[in-house]
Amino acid sequence: MPVWLRERCWRQTASAVYLSLPVRGLRVTAANIFCTDQYLKVSIPPFLFEAILYAPIDDTNSTAKIGNGIIFFTLYKKEAAMWDSLTLGNADKEKMQYLRENAVLKAHEKAKEEMEAKKVKKQEHKKYALEATMKLEEAERKRIEDLKEKERQKVTKELELWKKQQEDAEKQKRVHKEGDLREEVEKLKEKKKGKMNKTQIPSEGTSKTRFKPIKGCHGSYGMFSENLKEEQLPAPRSAATIKINFTSRVFPTALRESRVAEEEEWLRKQAEARRTLSADLSELEDLKEEEKNPDWLKEKGNKMFAAGNYLAAVNAYNLAVRLNNKLPLPYLNRAACHLKLRNLHKAIEDSSKALELLTPPVPDNENARVKAYVRRGTAFCQLELYTEGLQDYEAALKIDPGNKTIEKDAEKIRQLIQGTMQDS
Predict the structure, then answer these.
(1) What was the pLDDT predicted at 334?
(2) Digit-coded pLDDT (tens) for 182-191
(3) Cα separations (Å) of 175 from 171, 181, 223, 225?
(4) Which residue from 270, 271, 286 is spatially nearest to 319, judged by alpha carbons?
(5) Per-residue CA distances from 34 to 44, 59, 65, 68, 358 (Å)
(6) Which of 89, 175, 280, 328 has its CA 20 to 30 A from that of 409?
(7) Between the CA of residue 295 and those of 171, 283, 376, what are the distances in Å?
(8) How high does pLDDT run on average in the chain?
(9) Torsion, Cα of 169, 172, 177, 181 (10° steps)
(10) Yes or no: is domain 3-90 CATH 3.40.50.740?
């Protein structure tokens, strides 16, 4: 049963209400406060404060400050007027229940609208970022193409200038060669003419005139032998690329050194973990990196359970289970929270799931299996299913025979069963 916080102090103006709620010695967080336009609730187990306000307030702009053992609320009125009291005085139990359910429904609708608006805004931001990135990439691509075109034009001009210089050099060389040939021909003609003038009447012994071959000439066409052909250089060797294909590998070791079966099992588990993280969990997008770790969430839930904040612990275990539903400890710890919150059927489900995952039974998981049997047995007994509860306690005793506490509880359950049978 909750303990109601009766002590409070409030004052008002035409536009606002100021409420002070003493909570000395209690640890309060924002998660303990729930407020809508006409409903205010502060839940700090085992203490509870609840109020149906006299008139609607602006719950969006209203604030709550926590400090020095006091929660100070500043509630802004939707309509400027003085209230006769802080809460509705003539509200019966049915009306209170209706207003409470209506407030919770409005809060759920508001949270859903905010989540949808947040998704739309996020999509708009992603679209804007994509368009900006595409524009930047297009501008960079155009800049690179312009640089390439300028470089191409520059190289083309340099190549044309080089070709022109080569053609001019070839022309000058050709002119020089033709001039040298003409001079040599003229010299030979003059030399031949001089010899003919000297030997007008040849002697008997020299009836046959012999012409000495000119050095560097071959036969009668030696005068033109200076027109040498340019040496033809061979073309350069053509380049080629040898393509080498390797077997595709995820791991750095060679295929001949690997264990294919173990690697495929590891890759399958990694792919399953990635699929789990990329599932439809919109709340994961706003979490920090360590908050996506199931082990970190389990430890956080353990701390909240130790502090008595069972609802927050359940939320932490829920997210850990959604991230990795193959770990037995989040189910086991969540079952303990459900026992504290009197969610007995959920405690039985979580304990059974933990026992299912704690297979095969080995010495390392004995302690966890004992806890799972005891928690499920406790939930059965609180639902007055004593036979099923006794079976779980006896299963726990088989694993841990010397546990006096479990033996004592099992004996109490046997006595309850016997007393029930005698009464019937």
Answers:
(1) 96
(2) 888 888 888 8
(3) 6, 10, 18, 17
(4) 286
(5) 11, 10, 14, 20, 38
(6) 328
(7) 86, 18, 23
(8) 82
(9) 170
(10) no
The identity of residue 354, as a single letter, is A
Domain map (residue ranges) of the chain: 3-90, 112-189, 292-418
What sign results for the dihedral spanned by CA atoms 20, 23, 29, 33?
Answer: negative
Adjacent-strand bridge partners of 73: 19, 64
Report the length, in residues, of the chain.
424
Tell me what pLDDT residue 211 has.
45
pLDDT digit string, tens, across residues 296-309? 899 999 999 999 99
Return the closest-CA partner of residue 374 out of 340, 411, 348. Answer: 348
Task: Tell me the average pLDDT across 123-148.
Answer: 91
Radius of gyration of the chain (CA): 50
Fold entry, domain 292-418: 1.25.40
Query: Comparing 36-45, 338-347, 399-408, which segment has the lowest mean pLDDT?
Result: 36-45
Query: pTM for the complete prediction?
Result: 0.39
3-state helix, strand, coil in the chain (%, to 5): 60, 10, 30
At 292, list the tokens. 């996506």
